[in-house]
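lol ok so funny story. i was supposed to be doing the assay writeup but got distracted and ended up predicting the structure for this chain instead. priorities right. anyway since i did it might as well share w the group, maybe its usefull for someone
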Amino acid sequence: MIRWLVLLKPGDCLLIALGLAGVVASFPLAWRAGVAEKAVVRRGGELFSELDLRHDRRLDVPGPLGVTTVLVDRRRVRVAADPSPRQYCVRQGWLARPGEIAICAPNQVSVEVQGTRRTHDSLAY
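and the output, tada:
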C-alpha cells in the first residue's frame, strides 16, 4: 500500500509541501468579511430595515403577494415564511456569514447578511 511513496523524489515532496502551505494560507481569505453584524432587508429594491443580529426578533415585510416573515435568532437570519409559490428563499435556511443572501423574487423581498467589511460576489472589468 505504501509502495508508491518510494516513487516520490525530493522535488515532489517540496511541491506537496508548498501546495499544502498555499491551501492553509488561503483560509483567511474565505472569512475576510469578518463577523456577521446585521441583516439588510430590502423590499422592491429599496431599503426596508436593517436588523442587528445581536438581538433576536421577527419582522413582517409586506410585498405585492403578501407578507414575508424574517426571523433573527442567535446571530443568524432566515426567511421563515413567504407567499411565493416555489419557496426558494424559505428553503435557503439560516444565513450566518457575511455576503449570504436570500431573495424572494416574486414578492420582491431580499435579506442579506453584512459583516465588518463589504464582500464582493464577483468582480468584473
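The beta strands are 36-43, 46-52, 57-62, 67-73, 76-81, 101-104, 109-115. The domain at 36-115 is CATH 2.60.320.10 (mini-chromosome maintenance (MCM) complex, domain 2).
back to the writeup now i swear
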